[in-house]
Design brief:
Distance between the termini of chain B: 68 Å
Structural class of chain B: alpha/beta
CATH superfamily of the largest domain in chain B: NAD(P)-binding Rossmann-like Domain
CATH class of chain A: Mainly Alpha
Number of domains of chain B: 4
Shape of chain A: globular
Helix content of chain A: 55-70%
Strand content of chain B: 15-25%
Number of strands of chain A: 0
Radius of gyration of chain B: 32 Å
Number of helices of chain A: 4
Order of helices and strands of chain A: HHHH
Shape of chain B: flat
Strand content of chain A: under 5%
Number of domains of chain A: 1
Largest sheet of chain A: none
Oligomer: heterodimer
Helix content of chain B: 25-40%
CATH topology of chain A: Non-ribosomal Peptide Synthetase Peptidyl Carrier Protein, Chain A
CATH superfamily of chain A: ACP-like
CATH class of the largest domain in chain B: Alpha Beta
Number of strands of chain B: 29
CATH topology of the largest domain in chain B: Rossmann fold
C-alpha cells in the first residue's frame, strides 16, 4: 500500500502533466485507459516523477505500471 | 472515348452474404475508436482521421479519456458512455490496457473488434498470455477479432467506405481482395497499387490472428460480391489442411470460382536439415508449400510485382480460353523477346487464318510482318494498330493478344492507347484476353494511364505480360482439369497395423518394412531371413538363383556403407562364401545380438530406378514424394511432392510432371517404363500413410520399374515410426 504522501504527490504530478484536476484522479485509475495519457505523456510522467522524488526509474519497468496507485507503490519502493 | 465503360468487372458476381459475423468488421454502421489521441502523426490519431477522411458511411465515436473532442468530433471517456449501439470497435490503446478496453466492448455488446495495438504474442510470454486472455474473452462473448498488432481493415465499397487503418490513403475501389500477415508490407502494397492505378475491394492486415485467420477471410472474400481475385501474403500457415480445403473450393469448386494468388514468405530449408531420409531431406517447408498451393489451385507468386501483374489480368480480363497468343508490335526486338518468353512458358503462337492474313496484308505496308508476331513497323500510328488488333482478335485461332509499343518519333502513343481501349470495347463479348506492354517510362506514361483507366492490364516488359498470361492459362486449366477421386485399394490393414504396433519408435527392420508394404499390395519380391549359412543356401535354392544377401540389423541404416549387401550370387557356393564374409565383416560393426540375420531374395531384373517417399510436415501432415531414384536422387533433385491423400489425377501428374520424365517415357527407341505401375504404387503409398499417422518417414528407394506392362519391384525400403 502506497504511502499517503507519495500517493498525493503522484496524483499532483499526474494532474499537472495530463492537465487534469487532482480531484478527478483516483488510485485505481489507469494512466492511459482512464486518464487519457498518450505515449509521449507517459514518458513525460516518468521524467516528472523522477524530478519530483529525486530518483531514477527503469523506463521499461515504469511504463509497465498501469495505475496511479501502483505507480505510487513503485516509487515508494525506491525511496 | 465517351462510349467506353471503364472500371466494369468482367464477370457477374453473386450478392454479398454475411459470413460468420465478419459483416460487423467490413460493413459496420457504427464504429468506436478506443484510445484516440489529439497528436497528429501518431497511429491513435491518424486512424481516427482516416475514418473521417475516407468518408465512412456510418457514425464514428472517439473514445478518448479526459478529452472533449477529437478532430471536431465529441469524444467519450469510456465506450460504455456512448449512448448508441456500436457494431465495430477499433482499439488503439497501448497493448497493456487493451484487455480493459475489450472488456468494456464486450459489456457494450459490440460484435467485432480490430486491435491495432502491439504488445501481444510478438513481445514474449507476457504478451502471449495477454493475447490468450483477449482471445478467450472475445470467444466467450461471440465477438470477432482482427489482430492484434495489425494495420487494420479497408473496405472500398462505396456503400461503406471504411478505412479502419493507418494507411495513408484510401485505395481506389476495385475487385482485388488483399490479405496480409505483414502489416508493414500492407502500406507498401497500397502505395505500389496506387502508383499503378490498381484498386481493391477489401484490404486486411491479419496481425497476430488471435481470432480471424486467413481461412476465415478466404471464406468471407469468396462470398464477397465486390471481390473477383484474392491475394494473400503469408508468412506462416496454421490449420494447413483446412486452408487447402477452403482454397481448393474457392479456386475451382464452387459456382463462382475465384482465383487465389499467394506469396509465401520464409523460404527456408532449415526444417528439413535434420531429416534422415531422402524424402525428409528434400521435403523442405518450401517444396511442401509448393505442393499445397498446386493442389489447392492457388497461384504461387514470387514477388509483389508478379502477384499484381497476374491479379490485374485475372481481375479485369476474360480468362484466356487457351494458350494461343497473338503478338502485335512496332519493334522487332521486343516482338522476338515476347515470342521467346511465350514459347518458353508453354504458350503457343498460332498461324493466322487465311482471312486474317488477307486483312493484315490489306491494312499494313508491304514491309510489315503479317505473320505472328505481327510487326506493324516502327512508323505505325493508331490506324495500323487498330487494323491489326481487330484482325487477330477476330481470328478463331487466337485466344489472347499482346500489344507491344515502343515510343518512336512518329508513334502517337495516346491515340494508340485509346484505340486499343476502343477495340477492346468492340470485342468485349468475344472472350479474348488483351494485354499491353508500352515499353519505356516518360514518353509512354500518359498512354499507360489511359490503359489503366480502362482496365487493360499493362506491363513494363513483354516478358511480364507473358508471365501473367501463362498464369491465366494455368488457371483456366485448373478450372477445366479432370476431376478424379481418391482410389482406395483392398489391403490387409490389420497385418500392417500389427507390424507397426509391435515396433518401437525408430526404423523398422527390412523384413518388417517389407511386410508392411506387402500388406498394402506393393510388388515385394519373396524373401527369407536366414540366421545361418545353411538357411541362406536353402532359401536361395528355393527362391532361385541369382540371389541377393542383405544384412538385417536395426543399428545399421546404410547397408552399403558396411558392405551389408551382396548382389548377383549365382550358386550355393557363392552364397556360402558371401554369407561368411558378410557376417564376419558385420560383426566388426555390430554386436552379435544386434545382427538379426541376413535376408535372402532373388535378384530383381534391371529397370529404371525411381524413388517414392513419405515425410511428415508439422502443418500439413504426410507429404508424398516421387522422383528419379537410386543414388542420384539428391544430386538431380528431380522430385515432386503432394500432400496426401492424392487423387488419381495427381498420381498421374506426379509421374508425368518430372523435368526428366522423358527418361521414363522411353528415349531413343527404348520401351517406355510401366508408368501405370508407378501411379498405382503412389496411390497405395498415399493410402498407407493416411492409414498410419505414426509413419514419420518412408523411402522406397529404389523402386525398379520395368517396361510398360511388366510392373515394378520394391528393391529397398526404410520406414521410420515416430508416435
Amino acid at each position: 500500500m502506497a504511502n499517503k504522501d507519495v500517493l498525493d504527490r503522484v496524483i499532483k504530478v499526474t494532474a499537472r502533466v495530463l492537465n487534469l484536476d487532482p480531484g478527478e484522479i483516483r488510485p485505481e485509475h489507469s494512466f492511459s485507459f482512464d486518464l487519457g495519457a498518450e505515449s509521449v505523456q507517459s514518458v513525460e510522467l516518468i521524467a516528472a516523477f523522477e524530478e519530483e522524488f529525486g530518483i531514477e526509474m527503469d523506463e521499461d519497468a515504469a511504463l509497465a505500471v498501469e495505475r496511479v496507485g501502483a505507480a505510487a507503490d513503485f516509487i515508494g519502493k525506491q525511496l | 472515348m465517351a462510349t467506353l465503360s471503364p472500371n466494369v468487372p468482367t464477370q457477374t458476381l453473386p450478392r454479398q452474404v454475411s459470413a460468420n459475423g465478419m459483416d460487423a468488421i467490413f460493413s459496420p454502421q457504427s464504429i468506436a475508436v478506443l484510445g484516440v489521441t489529439n497528436t497528429a502523426g501518431t497511429v491513435p490519431h491518424d486512424i481516427f482521421v482516416n475514418l473521417l477522411s475516407g468518408r465512412f458511411n456510418g457514425v464514428v465515436y472517439p473514445v478518448a479519456p479526459r478529452k472533449k473532442h477529437i478532430a471536431g468530433v465529441r469524444a467519450y471517456d469510456y465506450v460504455l458512455d456512448i449512448p448508441d449501439p456500436i457494431d465495430l470497435a477499433i482499439l488503439v490503446f497501448p497493448g497493456n490496457v487493451c484487455e480493459l478496453a475489450l472488456q468494456q466492448c464486450v459489456e457494450k455488446g459490440i460484435r467485432a473488434a480490430i486491435i491495432i495495438s502491439a504488445g501481444f504474442r510478438e513481445v514474449g510470454p507476457a504478451g502471449a498470455a495477454r493475447e490468450q486472455r483477449i482471445r478467450a474473452m472475445a470467444a466467450e462473448a461471440g465477438m470477432r477479432l482482427i489482430g492484434p498488432n495489425c494495420l487494420g481493415v479497408i473496405n472500398t465499397d462505396p456503400a461503406v467506405r471504411l478505412n479502419a487503418s493507418f494507411a495513408r490513403a484510401m485505395p481506389a475501389p476495385g475487385h482485388i481482395g488483399f490479405l496480409s500477415q505483414s502489416g508493414a508490407l500492407c502500406t507498401a502494397v497500397l502505395d505500389y497499387a496506387a502508383g499503378k492505378n490498381i484498386g481493391f475491394s477489401k484490404f486486411v492486415s491479419l496481425g497476430n490472428k488471435a481470432d480471424v485467420s486467413e481461412i476465415d477471410l478466404l471464406r468471407y472474400l469468396a462470398d464477397d460480391a465486390e471481390t473477383s481475385v484474392i491475394l494473400m501474403y503469408l508468412e506462416e500457415m496454421s490449420r494447413g489442411y483446412e486452408l487447402m480445403e477452403v482454397a481448393h473450393r474457392i479456386s475451382g469448386e464452387n459456382d463462382h470460382p475465384k482465383p487465389i494468388l499467394a506469396i509465401k514468405g520464409g523460404r527456408t530449408a532449415a526444417g528439413a536439415a535434420a531429416a534422415q531420409s531422402h524424402t525428409g531431406a528434400l521435403a523442405s517447408s518450401d517444396v511442401v508449400c509448393d505442393a499445397v498451393m498446386r493442389q489447392s489451385g492457388i497461384i504461387r507468386c514470387n514477388s509483389i510485382e508478379e502477384m499484381f501483374n497476374t491479379a490485374q489480368l485475372l481481375a479485369y480480363q476474360p480468362l484466356p480460353r487457351g494458350p494461343r497468343l497473338a503478338i502485335i508490335t512496332n519493334a522487332g526486338g521486343p516482338g522476338v523477346m515476347a515470342t521467346d518468353a511465350a514459347v518458353d512458358r508453354g504458350l503457343q503462337l498460332p498461324s493466322f487464318s487465311e482471312d486474317t492474313t488477307r486483312k493484315l496484308a490489306a491494312a499494313l505496308p508491304a514491309a510489315a510482318n503479317i505473320k505472328n508476331p505481327v510487326d506493324v513497323i516502327g512508323d505505325a500510328r493508331d490506324d495500323r494498330y487498330v487494323a491489326a488488333l481487330q484482325a487477330v482478335l477476330d481470328d478463331d485461332n487466337v485466344d489472347m493478344a499482346l500489344v507491344i509499343l515502343t515510343p518512336q518519333s512518329m508513334t502517337n502513343i495516346n491515340a494508340i492507347a485509346e484505340a486499343v481501349c476502343r477495340v477492346r470495347g468492340q470485342f468485349a463479348d468475344a472472350g479474348k484476353t488483351l494485354v499491353c506492354s508500352f515499353m519505356g517510362a516518360k514518353d509512354v506514361a500518359a498512354g499507360i494511364r489511359i490503359l489503366q483507366e480502362y482496365r487493360i492490364p499493362h506491363y513494363l516488359l513483354p516478358e511480364w505480360a507473358v508471365d501473367a498470361l501463362r498464369d491465366g492459362v494455368r488457371y483456366r486449366r485448373w478450372l477445366e482439369r479432370e476431376r478424379t477421386g481418391v482410389k482406395r485399394f483392398p489391403v490387409d490393414q490389420a497385418r500392417a497395423a500389427a507390424v507397426i504396433a509391435e515396433a518401437a519408435d525408430g526404423y523398422l527392420t527390412e523384413p518388417q518394412a517389407l511386410a508392411v508394404l506387402d500388406a498394402y499390395g506393393f510388388p515385394v519380391v519373396e524373401h527369407t531371413l536366414a540366421t545361418s549359412v545353411d538357411e541362406a543356401v536353402a532359401a536361395a535354392r528355393r527362391l532361385g538363383f541369382p540371389v541377393v544377401l542383405r544384412v538385417v540389423a536395426p543399428k545399421i541404416i546404410h547397408k552399403f556403407d558396411v558392405k551389408g549387401v551382396v548382389l548377383n550370387l549365382q550358386n550355393a557356393d557363392e552364397v556360402r562364401s558371401a554369407y561368411a564374409t558378410m557376417r564376419a565383416n558385420l560383426l566388426e560393426h555390430v554386436a552379435p545380438e544386434d545382427l538379426l540375420g541376413i535376408l535372402v531374395r532373388p535378384m530383381i531384373p534391371a529397370g529404371k530406378e525411381v524413388i517414392l517417399g513419405v515425410s511428415r510436415d508439422p502443418v500439413f501432415g504426410h507429404v508424398l514424394m516421387f522422383g528419379l531414384g537410386g543414388i542420384y536422387v539428391e544430386a538431380f533433385k528431380d522430385v515432386t511432392f503432394r500432400v496426401i491423400p492424392i487423387r488419381e489425377a495427381a498420381a498421374r501428374n506426379m509421374v508425368r510432371g518430372l523435368r526428366l520424365s522423358s527418361v521414363l517415357q522411353g528415349l531413343r527407341g527404348e520401351k517406355p517404363s510401366d508408368l501405370d505401375a508407378i501411379e498405382q504404387a503412389l496411390k497405395r503409398l498415399s493410402q498407407l500413410a493416411a492409414d498410419f499417422p505414426a509413419i514419420a518417414e518412408l523411402d522406397i528407394n529404389p523402386l525398379i520399374v520395368h517396361p510398360a506392362g511388366e510392373g515394378c519391384h520394391v528393391a529397398d525400403v526404410r520406414i521410420r515410426v515416430q508416435r
